[in-house]
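One such shown below:
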Amino acid sequence: MSTIQKIGLGGGCHWCTEAVFQSLNGVQKVEQGYISSTVPHTVYSEAVIVHFDKSIITLKDLIEVHLHTHKSTSTHSFRTKYRSAVYYFNIEDKHSCEVYIQELQADFESSIITFVLPFDSFKASREQIRDYYIKDPDRPFCKQYIHPKLQFLRQKYTRIINPDF
């Protein structure tokens, strides 16, 4: 039986989300692009599909990192394009994600607004912007937005971060 699983995650800009999950031990691949769900969430939003080895990193770890590395409690005018969401591929993961989010609510002062939605379809980003951080971590965008997220991960999640990333 395979230990590789996948989950879709939308958390604002997919460049940031991609880099966050590429930095974790047990993550085999991160596909950057746009995900849509079912009605009423059919508009594509920036997101990633994370392929992970559940014998190395748990779904709960991924959900915790996800909630702590984007604005999972705030609304804004671009929330459709930058939807805070977990896209599940099977009903068991739906239930698990809902439980994990409820458990992790205690970490936040405001209510988590992250949707748990069924995955419907995916459109990959253009090749030029995939692996955005890996290709050039010294870009101003990376320094301003991605570096602080990775620093936070190095401090809080030492057991699951890849120290070489």
